[in-house]
Amino acid sequence: MPHTSATSTELPRGRPRDPSRDAAITDAAIELLIRTGYDRLTVEGVAAEAGVGKATVYRRWKSKADLVIDAMATLKPVAGAIDTGSLDEDIEQMAAVSCSPQSQRLLQVMTSVCSALSREPDLLEAFRTRFTEPRIERLTEILDRARRRGELAPHIDVAMAASLLPSLMLHRALTTGRPAGRAYAEQIVSTVLRPVLGLPARPSTPHPKETDD
């Protein structure tokens, strides 16, 4: 009699995984990250926020760090390339994009996980590939194009210059507890980035009702 493998006729065990629950859990993790920070985030709290049982979360993610990494991956990067044909206009648009509601939300998540980066290597890697590198890459592309157009001198350190706006925006958020606003982004561009690029500093546009400090 031919042997029939038990696995060939075995039915799947349990209920199929519900993608809507995955989304509810990762959304809850992001909300709690922003509200409480990584260190105070708990799987129990995420489960309660998402309206699911703790076991439902642990069936999907073995640890808090794994859950946060997947939650971070659901955040959409700021869309659209910036290429106006002018360095000044490209940088102005980049400063505006860095202060959009979407960018501010991403910045809030970045600040919420910073305290854990030194002890969570996987979280650090996700932070780097999801948040810091894409921002620096976008600015690097803008500056490389400007150099090819002759707007920047060949000796300008594009890699260093491209890291200034993202790094200083994050630093501001970490030291104040709130995302930096448009006025601060324009101040970085006007008084820090432009001189580093060999361009004259210039006054930034005032934004009366905005509070960065």
What do these coordinates show?
The protein has 2 domains: 19-73, Homeodomain-like (Arc Repressor Mutant, subunit A, Orthogonal Bundle), CATH 1.10.10.60; 87-196, Tetracycline Repressor, domain 2, CATH 1.10.357.10. Helix content is 62%, strand content 0%. The protein is built from 11 helices and no strands. This is TetR/AcrR family transcriptional regulator. Residues 1-22 are annotated as: Disordered. InterPro entries: DNA-bd_HTH_TetR-type_CS, Homeodomain-like_sf, HTH-type_TetR-like_transc_reg, HTH_TetR, Tet_transcr_reg_TetR-rel_C_sf, TetR_C.
How are the SSEs placed, and which strands pair?
Blueprint lengths: L5 H4 L9 H18 L6 H8 L3 H7 L3 H10 L13 H11 L3 H13 L7 H28 L9 H5 L1 H13 L5 H15 L17
Helix pairs in contact: 2-3, 2-5, 2-7, 3-4, 5-8, 6-8, 6-11, 7-10, 10-11
If you compute it from the alpha carbons, what radius of gyration comes out, rounded to the nearest whole angstrom?
22 Å
Structural class: mainly alpha
Question: Order of helices and strands, N to C?
Answer: HHHHHHHHHHH
Would you report the number of β strands? Answer: 0
How confident is the prediction overall: mean pLDDT? 85
CATH architecture of the largest domain: Orthogonal Bundle
Question: What best-fitting shape do the alpha-carbon axes yield?
Answer: elongated
CATH superfamily label of the largest domain = Tetracycline Repressor, domain 2
CATH class of the largest domain: Mainly Alpha
> Low-confidence segments, ≥5 residues, pLDDT <50?
1-15
Domain HTH tetR-type: 19-79
Keywords: DNA-binding, Transcription, Transcription regulation
Protein name: TetR/AcrR family transcriptional regulator
Region (Disordered): 1-22
